[in-house]
Specification:
Blueprint lengths: L14 H13 L6 H12 L2 H18 L3 E3 L6 E3 L5 E3 L2 E4 L4 E6 L4 E7 L8 H21 L3 E9 L10 E13 L4 E14 L4 E14 L5 E14 L3 H28 L5 H5 L19 H9 L5
Antiparallel strand pairs: 1-2, 3-4, 4-5, 5-6, 7-8, 8-9, 9-10, 10-11
Helix pairs in contact: 1-2, 1-3, 2-3, 4-5
Length: about 300
């Protein structure tokens, strides 16, 4: 479109403006749906260079924000794309297997794998705590999230060789359920930072839980919610500390899940009534007394595994 195309015609967008708009749409795609959004964005842009520039910028942001997990090339497990494991733009540490994976963000695949260098790994002392917590959290995630993955990273003090100094770890949990054939997708993401204070023999725990769900059969309903939590426990042996930390995470996440469950079971009393008029254009009263008969309520409950 040019400035001479007639009255009311706006100025043509520059390539940078197009790229910024495309990045916004890609970065804000619902969980598990960036490829569908990318297909439409590519078709609308009709400019491969602009699309590739936008994808190169948006995909790394999206993958890290959604804690996307990828299969390792040697089938030894999964790696979570998170800032805690980021060595550089395309290389990420898997602390459990002590390997570094090279990631193609746009294709969302791991292309190469190498052993981690000594300087990329924590000391033997820190690794005792990291591994013990990883073992216990893995058990919890296996029980709580059928398709969940987790990892524990050292965030500070990784070169400490013996007791006497502070250090930090981070527990990252990512679970997703993809069901596009049923018009719904969902994800659970939580990050728990653990600050170990040697002087006080205390572990300060701070967590952020994020839940997203998208239902798009004959409509477009999204859930995007998060909550911050705090707790603490005594610093003990690696094994005892791991048990205590995992129990706190289990309690905090279960409590938040229960609050979500209660909210959705009470949809008919509040939320759905706010979504539409009492008497719609069909002139037929909406069945507030029996909203569980509606596929939207049933599928949202099923997607989030409510009532189980």
């Amino acid at each position: 479109m040019s400035d001479d195309d007639g009255d009311g015609a706006g100025e043509q967008l520059t390539d940078d403006q197009k790229r910024e708009i495309a990045v916004w749409f890609l970065s804000n795609a619902p969980a598990g749906e960036i490829r569908y959004v990318a297909k439409d964005v590519r078709a609308l842009l009709r400019d491969e260079a602009v699309y590739e520039a936008a994808a190169a910028e948006a995909y790394p942001k999206y993958n890290k924000a959604h804690l996307v997990s990828l299969d390792l090339p040697d089938r030894s497990g999964d790696i979570i794309i998170t800032t805690y494991g980021e060595l550089d733009r395309n290389n990420y540490l898997d602390p459990r297997t002590a390997q570094v994976a090279t990631v193609d963000h746009v294709k969302q695949t791991c292309t190469k794998l190498r052993p981690a260098a000594d300087e990329e790994l924590p000391s033997a002392y820190i690794e005792e705590f990291r591994n013990a917590i990883d073992v216990e959290v893995s058990k919890y995630v296996g029980e709580a999230y059928p398709k969940g993955v987790c990892a524990v990273y050292c965030t500070s003090g990784k070169d400490i060789e013996e007791p006497g100094a502070d250090f930090g770890l981070a527990v990252v949990i990512s679970a997703a359920r993809r069901s596009p054939q049923n018009f719904c997708n969902g994800s659970w993401r939580s990050v728990w930072t653990l600050e170990f204070s040697y002087a006080f023999q205390l572990v300060e725990i701070k967590g952020k839980i994020q839940v997203g769900a998208h239902y798009f059969e004959e409509g477009n309903v999204q859930l995007d919610t998060d909550v911050d939590r705090k707790d603490s426990t005594l610093m003990q042996t690696p094994e005892d500390t791991a048990l205590s930390v995992t129990n706190i995470i289990r309690h905090q996440e279960s409590e938040y899940f229960s609050s979500l469950e209660e909210s959705y079971l009470n949809l008919s009393d509040a939320t759905f009534k706010d979504l539409r008029r009492k008497l719609p254009v069909t002139r037929t009263l909406f069945p507030w007394h029996n909203t569980h008969a509606l596929s939207l309520t049933r599928d949202l409950a099923k997607e989030l595994a409510l009532g189980k």
